[in-house]
Amino acid sequence: MKDDTIATVKESLGTSRKRKRSICDRCKKPSPQACICSALPETPITLQHSRVIVLQHPHERKRKNSSIPLISLCLDQSMKDDDTDDFDFSFYTVTGRYLGEDIVLSSVWKMINDPNEPVYICYPNEDAVSLKELLSQESVASCRELGDQNCKRINIKPTFIFIDATWSHAKEMYIKTKEKNGWPKHAINIKLNPTSDNGKDFQARRFDIRTPPSPDHLSTSECIATVLREVEGESNKDIFDLLMRPLDLMVSQWRSFKNKRQND
Question: Read out DSSP for the chain?
Fold first, then answer.
């Protein structure tokens, strides 16, 4: 009888603990203590001048402190007119250790392998050009084509591919995709220079939940926000701040929890 009473008490306590841990339906974080919905845009952002593809390592998908789920809550993930000539999207994530036809949506695969569709891989290999250099070259090329001397921005909608992984895994994924001929043949590699690209907005180790190899290394979310600010321009002029708000809130909450544990 005594054992039954103890078991009942334990079961009751376990049920009580489970009930206390409420999960937010939108951001999927413990609510209210870790909810970041207050920092999210009211509606997902539709990109006007670019597309984003994230190749995410399987390990990253399981991490609770990954930055990509925050971006996915901010950007529109819908697919427009699938399998038609008008197919388009803003943000697409694929999980795998390499980029390949077997894991990518067929419409997306067809698009990024069309030589008329500009594709850029955000990975700093030996041939990578800087983001600033890319924008300058592409805007000049498109202006000449259109005959508009006053054109300032890219007029063709480019797709930017980002690798979401630890630095060592990202290197493995890049090489493996290259060995499998997964990168579009016409794709160009780009590199970011955080200090100059972000100017006054640059914050070293902004995402210090995860320790970067150096102050100049950015989280995947920061890389995406940096590129989109330059490419989207006036159509989404606040996009950098909008994408950084949930990340900054998550980091702030993490620091608060960490300090509380240290003081207890």
Answer: -HHHHHHHHHHHHHHHHHHH-EE-TTT-SEETTT--GGGS-SSPBPPSS-EEEEEE-HHHHH-TT-SHHHHHHHB---EESTTSTT-EESEEEEESSS--TTTS-HHHHHHHT-TTS-EEEE---TTPEEHHHHHHHHHHHHHHHHT-TT--S--S--EEEEEES-HHHHHHHHHHHHHTT-S-TT-EEEE--HHHHHGGG--TTTTTTS--SSTT---HHHHHHHHHHHHHGGGGTTHHHHHHHHHHHHHHHHHHHHHHHHH-
pLDDT (0 to 100) of residue 217: 74
Return d(Cα 182, Cα 108) in angstroms, integer: 13
**What angle do the packed helices 239-263 and 220-232 form, to 10 degrees?**
160
Residue 150, pLDDT score: 41
Residues of the chain with pLDDT under 70: 1-20, 83-84, 138-155, 195-216, 259-260, 263-264
pTM of the model: 0.81
| pLDDT value, residue 34 | 86
Domain-located, residue 111: yes
Total number of residues shown for the chain? 264
Q: pLDDT tens digits for 6-21?
A: 555 555 555 545 556 7
Q: Is residue 97 part of a domain?
A: yes
Q: Look at the block and give the residue holding tokens 């306590």.
A: 13
Residue 128 included in any domain: yes
Place of tokens 């925050």: 70
Provide the domain limits for residue 126. Answer: 49-62+89-254
